[in-house]
Amino acid sequence: MSVGRPEIDPTWLDPAKETPINGSTPASSSPAPEPTPVQPPAAGPPVEPALSATVPVPPQPSVPPSPAAPPTPPQPEPSPSPLKPPASHLPRDERSQPLPAPRPRLARPGRWLIGGVMILVIVVGLFLASQAGWITLGVEHLWGLANRPGQAFLQAADGLAATPQYHVDAELNLSFTQPVRMPRLGANGFVPSAGSALLASDESGETFLAGRIRQDIADGKSLAQSEWQFAAPRILRAQMGPPFTHEMPLRIDALAAGDALYLRLPTESTAWTTTAVTELKTLSVVPVDWAALYRSLGKAVTRGKRIRGKTVNGEQAKGYQATVPASALAEVLVPGVAPSGEVQVESWIGTKTRRPYLLTVSGAMGSLEPNLTIVFGQFGAPLVIVPPASAEATAGTLLDWVVSHTLVAADTPASRDALRKADLARLKETLATYATEARPFAYPKTDGVVQLGQANEVTKALQVHQSPLPADPLAPNRYYGYTSDGTTYRLTAVLEQGDDPQGTKEGDLTLYVVTP
Q1: pTM
Q2: Containing domain of residue 506, as a range?
Q3: Is residue 424 domain-shared with residue 322, that is, in the same domain?
Q4: How confident is the model at residue 361 (pLDDT cuts 50, 70, 90)?
Q5: What per-residue string of b and e applies to 396-409 under the rule 16 or more CB within 10 Å gives b?
Q6: Could you tell me which of 168, 290, 255, 165 has the C-alpha nearest to residue 219?
């Protein structure tokens, strides 16, 4: 039990107080002793002053002695308690967070490895995105096929130029959106030149040229088999030979070897006619050089993008869409003609081979609306093209040969009579349709012979089934005659060739007559 320090009376040193100290009485006559100077304590640790022995101690009650306690056996020393971990840092408020524990730093080789892996992942990702067409780096042509259409078309041109043998299938639909002139036709993939005109058309009606071409290219030679279909208003058909007048397809074979061009009409003769290819350039018609076409398109692309690829002829191909001036297309197909407008070009080019497999062209070229589809294939096939051993040279120009072989006939009595016969054949079909739908069966009745196109009642009745009704090529000086009693009819046209074996003499006229 600890005893607290006793309180000390602060007045015990007062000399005026008569309280005895330790039971002694001080002499009142003796002077007060001189104060002893206090020495400063020696340097060292502070020492607590001891209590004076004269401090009164309160009396303690007497306590009887307690019996001796038995000796306490020695106790083993307690084992030291395990050290507790320091308390975790408590945040001072809810916004403060404990500091993260430091992580061990990687050695320099480890950091280089991780950096290299990250760079590799980025490079591979960019490469795959570029190959998929999601992004364009602009340097794809260094390791493969470019992403930009212009660069890809130039690569395709080089691929075709380096291929000695290949095959082309082409389909052409050429629509004339405005009154046009009679075009000259070519072959071997030729496109008609709108500048070589014979007569302008002032009639309404659809005018188009459709063609299919199968072309083999081998060792600088070209063999094309083409089939053409022409539809036009009446005044244009008046200038066409029988193949076009009767709306029948026309077949042309063309073989180009060096500076020589061989032509023939396989439905009429197996004989070839030859002319110089250089002559074609004066007509603004030349054989198509497909490599030159791709090169011209590649240089003229104004805008374009990658589109979805496809498999063509078993080959994986990238797709491209581009807009080019129409003049870039005409520069190769019809040199010397510079139409206005733009055309849309889509092409699929082999990813590995860098050769074109499919090309489509659509848009506007002045008054023309071309729709062209070209399929390339059989690259490297063993194609052999042998020029004919003999061929008849054209006596005049190529246009003379075309006219003489009824591809394009001059405006002659024979061509106009052929058109009259074709017009009456179509009118016969129109009258049959009208009579079948009439109840009861009947033809439009007339009082005597009327001029078709001027007899209002008959014209209105037939225009429901054929509009406009055909008219004589030399109208209004000539006309088609019609007479009917309702049960039968008689169509007539005056022929210009009086000796036509299909004509019927009536006075001084030779009539071509059609009845049901």
Answers
A1: 0.51
A2: 413-514
A3: no
A4: very high
A5: eebbebbbebbbbb
A6: 165
